[in-house]
Design a protein that fits this description.
Structural class: alpha/beta
Number of strands: 10
Largest sheet: 6 strands, mixed
Order of helices and strands: EEHEHEHEHHHEHHEEHHHEEH
Number of helices: 12
Bound molecules: Fe4 H S5, zinc ion
Radius of gyration: 20 Å
Strand order of the largest sheet: 5-4-3-6-8-7
Helix content: 40-55%
Oligomer: single chain
Strand content: 5-15%
């Protein structure tokens, strides 16, 4: 197969575009896809101060690299989750990446905040690890962005991630989630910082190919806590459909953004300041503070 742009041998094939690309033109293709997503969905402004949520995996490091190349002002925030060797290795990769490109990296440690990491947090609170982890990450990213004057938080969710979430939300008819599922979450007066997902036009394998071709040394291991997650099964199912009919994932997700989402309720919720930490919440005390309180109570043996 030859590159559609220059007829040199292709190194990556993108079946849904029925095209092959050489290294140089694949990189250019990825940059254009992200630029197009940012423009079409009005994700970022040139004067935005962007905080990239960097885990050390391919998606977040590729996103940081791409935003940097597109000329945006983007700093990184890495959270030390405290999930054994997986976490320490992720931190090493993230730091090395930031250093190699001269980018500003902030770090926050869950263990320093709570006294223990995600593994212990989920054990003590008997919550599914990814649920406790998600609550913690959302809280830390939003609070950090707000306190440090960032106008937007960017995450590395790709087409496969978002299509799998959509499939899960439909299978369970989570109408409230469907109304909110979007590649852009606007800021609220109550203090939720704007959130964007600039990689939603790129399939996971395209992001991986981009990271490899750009020489990004990322954490290749999966988080050990994610073993058996249903999202893996949804991704497998979607990949199977994609094999038979290239373009299915894109049509599914982007069709939803363009034609499906508006049929689900998405009225803005009234949010209050959490009585403990001040972060926005629908109740009196936010999910993160309730989680932290439960974990501390369990440690003190009061429950
Ligand atoms: S880090 Fe955290 Fe993920 Fe690990 S515990 Fe689950 S949510 S899988 S992106
Ligand atoms: Zn080429
Ligand atoms: Zn709180």
């Amino acid at each position: 197969m030859k590159c559609v742009k220059c007829r040199q041998p292709a190194v990556v094939e993108v079946r849904r575009h029925n095209a092959g690309f050489c290294r140089e033109h694949f990189v250019e293709h990825v940059l254009r896809q992200v630029e197009r997503t940012i423009d079409e969905l009005h994700m970022l402004r040139r004067d935005d101060r962007i905080l990239v949520a960097v885990s050390g995996g391919k998606d977040s490091l590729a996103l940081w690299d791409i935003l940097h190349r597109l000329g945006y002002r983007a700093d990184g925030l890495h959270i030390h989750l405290g999930i054994g060797e997986y976490s320490s290795e992720s931190t090493v990769k993230t730091r090395a990446f930031a250093e190699s490109r001269g980018l500003t990296l902030h770090e926050v440690s869950v263990a320093e905040e709570l006294g223990f990491g995600i593994e212990e947090l989920s054990r003590r609170t008997r919550r599914i690890p990814c649920s406790a982890c998600g609550t913690t990450k959302r809280h830390i990213f939003n609070r950090f962005a707000r306190e440090h004057g960032y106008t937007v938080v960017a995450t590395g969710h790709n087409l496969d991630d978002e299509a799998a979430t959509l499939l899960g939300n439909i299978l369970h008819w989570q109408t409230e989630y469907l109304g909110r599922q979007s590649a852009v979450m606007e800021a609220t007066e109550s203090g939720l910082v704007r959130k964007v997902k600039p990689l939603v036009r790129l399939a996971e394998r395209e992001v991986a190919a981009y990271a490899v071709l750009q020489g990004i040394d990322y954490q290749v291991d999966e988080c050990p806590m994610a073993v058996g997650a249903t999202s893996h099964l949804y991704k497998e199912v979607l990949n199977r459909l994609e094999e038979v009919a290239p373009g299915t994932k894109h049509q599914f997700l982007w069709g939803f953004y363009e034609r499906g989402r508006r049929h689900f309720p998405h009225e803005s919720r009234t949010l209050n300041a959490c009585k403990v930490c001040g972060e926005p919440t629908t109740g009196e005390i936010c999910a993160y503070c309730r989680l932290a309180e439960r974990a501390r109570a369990a440690a003190a043996g009061t429950r």
